[in-house]
Specification:
Number of strands of chain B: 0
Largest sheet of chain B: none
Helix content of chain B: over 70%
Number of helices of chain A: 15
Oligomer: heterodimer
Radius of gyration of chain A: 21 Å
Radius of gyration of chain B: 16 Å
Helix content of chain A: over 70%
Order of helices and strands of chain A: HHHHHHHHHHHHHHH
Largest sheet of chain A: none
Shape of chain A: globular
Number of domains of chain A: 1
CATH class of chain A: Mainly Alpha
Largest interface: A-B, 31 and 35 residues
Distance between the termini of chain B: 28 Å
CATH topology of chain A: Cytochrome C Oxidase, Chain A
Shape of chain B: elongated
CATH superfamily of chain A: Cytochrome c oxidase-like, subunit I domain
Order of helices and strands of chain B: HHHHH
Chain lengths: ~425, ~150
């Protein structure tokens, strides 16, 4: 009875975990791609390799972890869970994984049937996810700021994917739409409209609670999500219409993101936790990269010599995707996965067999060493943009290894889970 | 007006501060300090559980007729937190700092997601259904949780 009750709110372990275990594989695949293609991949952001690389990190690592985390966190943070979470997770995970493989294959070979497959799978997967999460979010009353941020983030994902799908239609059937403009708008909605909004909504809750910092200022949590959403919508219209005010709107969006990153860093410095664990160091690295990325973008706007350098978008991409989002997400995975395993083992033990605590499920030293590998791969990737001929191969290798290491760490948690579950079975059978 | 949510959420933050103090004391030269501060944290947290289990939850259950819903879930999590407190206390007594940190980290996350559910879902429901009883209920909650402060 006890176990049943506590599972009422939390989805089965297999629902979020499949996303968390697939994500590092995609990031490792990005590293492998760079290792194979070498400096050629970094010639410009428009090379087939660069597009495949970017989507392995965004639609692979970021989307997979964010979908898994949202399925898990919704019932806790809002009291409204997704109905039939395991079925939804299986369908969404399968379609997103297959869709991304088609997409990457499409970029690398430019075969229209692969783009058609990507269109169907990614469109279907995201649609199922949006309907399931949308129904859960519709049940909760308006009011709390995190709910606003989550609702707008989910809408942001919808816009991102719609724009992405429209480009796929174009590629799959050889139409001639203005792909360059749509790409910029698609990218901004993905990074800010979905990524930053979801991250900020989750951060408002998890940063004060798990890292014991002061609460986020009320004005920030109230204003940031609606303001960024509005500014993005206005900027998209201005950009599409070729209106001169677009750069100013883009600067405001960048300033909003920078403000969030700085505010979060400011809170982290005031954390009451005495020890800087892997999660906290990952967060500090990620937020520092976000602030650095916003500053670099601003300098690029003001200083034409830098702004016209073709490496700038790649440098920004590495800084924001690998340095910013991947760092913060990995830091969260290192709290979420060991805790979920503990929770499910504790429930399986029915209070009679105790679960191993989180640090026995995944040791602090294992996380710290993997983080060092991640930081090294980030440094090499940034160097590779500046000197592709020297650093492209080492950077690819480092990204491959640091993500395989992350996978090994998460896989070890799963091994502890399986081993302990057998132990519980034996103990309970012996007691019966 | 959300008097129950405001008061009980404030008490959560008080327990958080006591938890943080234990962690900070681990680097202090006084070896007896962490166990002493951990006892303070446990006393405040257990008093909070007591106020909920003996006053708030029964009142909620009586007013709504919901006995096997959120309050039952919260009681179960109280049991899990008590067990982690025992594990952490034993680790401190044995002088095993790593094991204390592992148990404490697990306790913190369990406690915080528990608090989140109470503050976002259960306490607002209590304020809604117990609005007419807040006058007598609130002093009772203050007395039970406050007893740990003296």
């Amino acid at each position: 009875m006890q176990a049943m009750l506590s599972f009422d709110q939390a989805p089965p372990l297999a629902a979020p975990l499949r996303f968390f275990l697939t994500a590092p594989l995609f990031a490792a695949a990005a590293g492998l791609l760079l290792l194979i293609l070498g400096p050629e991949l970094l010639a410009s952001r428009w090379t087939a390799g660069a597009l495949a690389f970017t989507h392995l990190l965004t639609a692979g690592f970021m989307l997979q972890t964010m979908v898994g985390a949202l399925l898990q966190i919704l019932p806790v943070a809002t009291g409204a869970g997704v109905a039939r979470p395991l079925g939804v997770a299986r369908a969404v995970h399968g379609l997103l994984t297959l869709g991304l493989l088609f997409l990457v294959g499409g970029f690398l070979t430019y075969r229209s049937e692969l783009f058609q497959g990507a269109l169907l799978c990614l469109g279907g997967g995201v649609l199922i996810f949006l309907v399931a999460v949308g129904r859960a979010l519709a049940q909760i009353p308006m009011g709390s700021t995190i709910q606003w941020a989550l609702k707008l983030a989910v809408a942001g994902l919808g816009v991102t994917v719609l724009l992405g799908l429209s480009m796929l239609v174009n590629l799959a059937w050889g139409l001639s739409w203005p792909l360059l403009e749509i790409t910029g708008i698609h990218l901004a909605w993905g990074l800010v409209g979905w990524g930053v909004l979801l991250l900020s909504g989750v951060a408002y809750v998890v940063v004060p609670m798990f890292l014991l910092t002061p609460a986020f200022p009320g004005w920030l949590t109230r204003l940031l999500a609606p303001l960024l959403f509005l500014l993005l919508a206005l900027w998209s219209g201005a950009e599409a219409a070729g209106w001169g005010g677009a750069p100013l709107l883009a600067a405001l969006v960048a300033a909003g993101c920078g403000t969030f990153a700085l505010a979060t860093l400011w809170l982290l410095v005031r954390s009451k936790r005495a020890r800087l664990d892997a999660t906290q160091r990952y967060w500090r690295l990620g937020l520092a990269c976000a602030v650095g990325g916003a500053a670099l973008w601003a300098v690029g706007q003001l200083w034409p010599a830098l702004g016209l350098w073709p490496g700038l978008p790649l440098l920004l991409g590495m800084l924001l995707l690998v340095g910013g989002f991947m760092s913060v997400i990995t830091g969260m995975l290192y709290k979420i996965v060991p805790f979920l395993i503990w929770l499910h083992l504790q429930n399986a033990g029915q209070g009679r067999v105790l679960a191993p605590n989180m640090k026995r499920i995944l040791a602090e030293s294992a996380m710290a060493r993997q983080m060092a590998a991640h930081a090294a791969s980030l440094a090499l990737l940034l160097a590779a943009v500046v000197r592709p001929a020297w650093f492209a191969w080492p950077a690819g290798l480092a990204l491959l290894l640091s993500n395989l290491w992350l996978l090994v760490n998460l896989w070890r948690c799963l091994q502890v889970y399986r081993r302990h579950l057998r132990h519980i079975g034996e103990q309970l059978a012996a007691a019966a | 007006m959300t008097p129950i949510r405001d008061y009980m959420s404030g008490d959560h933050r008080r327990c958080d501060d006591l938890f943080a103090a234990v962690e900070q004391s681990l680097s202090q030269p006084d070896p007896a300090l962490p166990a002493q501060l951990f006892a303070d944290f446990c006393q405040a947290t257990l008093a909070h559980f007591q106020a909920e289990e003996e006053a708030l939850f029964p009142a909620f259950e009586q007013a709504t007729g919901i006995r096997m819903g959120p309050t039952q879930m919260m009681r179960l999590e109280h049991v899990q937190m008590r067990s982690l407190m025992d594990e952490a206390r034993q680790a401190l007594a044995a002088g095993d700092q790593d094991d204390y940190l592992g148990a404490a980290e697990t306790l913190l996350i369990l406690m915080q997601q528990h608090n989140l559910k109470e503050e976002n879902v259960l306490y607002p429901m209590c304020d809604e259904h117990l609005a007419g009883h807040a006058g007598e209920l609130l002093p009772l909650l203050q007395k039970t949780t406050g007893s740990a402060q003296s």
